[in-house]
Structure formats: structure tokens, C-alpha cells
Amino acid sequence: MQDHVIYRCVNAACARPMPRPVNFCPYCGTAQETGAHAQEPGGRPAQRPATATAGMQEERPKREAAIAAAAGAAASAAAAPSGWSDAPSESLSPVPSGLSAPPASAAQQAGAANAASAPGDAVRPEEGAAAGAHAAPAAPTPDAHRFGRSGGARPAAGMDAAHDRPSKGAGAARQEVPRPAIPAKPAAPQRRPVRLRWWLLALAILWGMWLWAKPSARKTEQRIDHAIALARDCKGSAAQAELAALRSSRATPEQLARLQRSLDEEAAACTRRRQRNKAWSDTSSAVEAALAAGSPDKARTRLQAFVRRWGEDGRTRELKERIQARQDERGGGNGGARGSSGSDAGDAHPLAVPARQAGGGAARSTSGRSAATLLAEARGDLAHGDYASAADRMSLCLAMGDSHYRECLAVKAQAEREGMY
């Protein structure tokens, strides 16, 4: 029955078992040399054939030289600054063809050399490191303050010579990696100037908006004339509403002042027109009553008082003609009486006192009583608020021309003053 052989990693730090021989450890990556130590299940090293032992003894000097060279290269790599992108690369000596791959570190290569050697011929790590130091001295460590900084000082001349000197085994000089030039930032494209047609279009739009928003002077004048016409027709509320609307619009202060002045004048005219109509109504009623009673003289007096106060118009002229016609009719009926009285007067004595003068005292007393009656009636009309009737009665009183003239004048002035308000 064949014994089971256990292969272990040559790296003393790893030393993990493997089911079969491999070139590199799957755990730590250390190169496994041909003829690595295999262990039996009990942990004892497997017995090597005599031919293998002799061959390994013959290759021992070569292996020691390779280990020394690898140790020196590892020391140089460890001394180099880590993390510097612009640090010069070390030119290492090529690994001899007897080794499959370069060791990862000095400790790993020393362990591999110790594991590959025979138990009796094992080389200690201290001896391997010393031999590597004597074989290939490590390059001086570059100063981090003087090397690797952009724009800083160059390293020392010895370091430059050591790094710039080509390796003996490589046979090629160090080459710098070319860096691409930073492209220039493209300039922003210039804005094209605005064409003339767009300026003209903008001006046309602004002109149209100005025409649409500008208040028309003709429309404002038409509204003002309409408000004045309303005030002339005695529609004061509608005229005032139009004035308020024009104030909220864009009418000029001069236009508003003219409209306000016209409205005030028309309001006063409307008030006077209403008072005249009321006075005419009272006067026409009194004249008709006097004509019906057969007193054309009283009707004429009342009409004359109205004309002096309010002026003459077509209606007053028509009424005046009616009164004159009634007086003419009354004078024609009394013509015979006047003729007979004239014949009697012709027979009278030439020095006799006329009957009119003889009865002058009685006539004056009759006129005095009539003036007093008119004054009493006028005061009654004032008490009842009939100022037009009171003024008409006082006009008759003034027409009589008697001693009550001043009293009639004062009552008439009072009636007219209170009638205006």
C-alpha cells in the first residue's frame, strides 16, 4: 500500500499543506522549487533520493548567489519611496533562469532558500541577508523633500547617476512616460448681433401698444359734452356719475375743471328754472281767477309782477294779449255810460270841482285799506311757505303807491330772499 505524501508551502510563514506539488503556493503565492520538501502524514520530512541530494548540493552555490541578488533587489525596492508617481524606477538585475519568478520580498525569498536546501545544508536568514548586502549594495534612499515634488529641486548627483545608469542585465536606459498635452479650453462663441429687422419689429410693437393705451382726446371731449348735456337737461345725478368716471380715467385737470364749472352753472340754471315754473304756475292761476272775476286790471298787475321778477317769454306775451282783449271788451260796453255822463258834465258849472277830486279822500282811504289787506295776506302766505304769492301781493301793494310802500317793499324782499332757498 502506497504511503500518502503531504506537500507543504516552502514559505515558513505559510507552510500550508497541499494535496499535490505545485509551482506557486495558492495561499501566499510563493514559488515552489522543484523537489520541495514533502512531509509524511506524521509530520516528518519525506526521505529524498540520493541523486536528488547530490544535485541540490551541486546547485547550492548558484542558489546562494540568486538569493543574494534577490535580497539586494528587495532591499532596494523596500527603501524606495512608496506612493510617488514620479519616482524613478529601479533597474534590477535579471533573475537567473533557474528561478521561475522573482520573490515578493526578502523574507519570503530567504524562507524559500532555507526550505529548498537540505536539512544539513540549510542557510540561515541572517547569513542570506548578509550575503545579499555584500553582493549588491542597496541604492541610497532618495530624500522625500528634495525629490518627487513638482517644481522642487532635483535629487543629489550621486542618486541621479545611480538611477540614470542603465542596468547591466537589462541593457536599456530608463525612459520617461510621455504625458499628453493639456488641450486649451475652447473659447466661448461670440453672440451674433441683433439684426435691424428685429429692432424695427420691436419698435412697431411698442408703437402699437402706445396707440392702444393712449387715451384719445376726442373721446374724452365727447364724454365731457355728454355730461354737460345731461346737466343741461337737469339730470344732475347722471352728470355727477360721468364726472366721477372721467376722474378715474386719464382726463387732464383742465378738462375736469371745465366740466365741474359747467355742471355748477347748469345746476344753478336748473334751480332757477324750477323756481320760475312754480312761480308761473301760481301767477297763471291768479290771472285766470282775476279774469274770471271780471278784474282785468288785477290780472294785468299780477302778470307785470311776474315779468319783472322772472322775465318775459312766449307764455307771458300770450297771457298779456288775453288781458288786453278783456280790457277792450269791458271798455266798449261802458262807452254809452261815459257819453251820457259827458253830456251831464257839459251842463255843469265850469268852476265846479270834478267828482274824482271831490271824492279823493274816500279813494285814498279805500286804497289804504287795500294795501293793509294785501300786507296781511302776504304775511299769511309767508307763514305758510307760499313765497311766490306773498311776492305777487307785495308787487300789487307797491303798484298802489300809498303810505304802505316801504312795508310792502320789505315784505316783498323777504319773500324773494326766502323763496330762493
UniProtKB/TrEMBL annotation:
Can you tell me where the transmembrane regions are? Answer: 196-213
> Which residue intervals make up region (Disordered)?
34-189, 324-366
Q: This protein's superkingdom?
A: Bacteria
Q: Which UniProt keywords apply?
A: Membrane, Transmembrane, Transmembrane helix
Which residue intervals are annotated with compositional bias (Low complexity) in the record?
A: 66-80, 91-119, 128-142, 178-189
How is this protein named in the record? Uncharacterized protein
Q: What is the lineage of its organism?
A: Bacteria, Pseudomonadati, Pseudomonadota, Betaproteobacteria, Burkholderiales
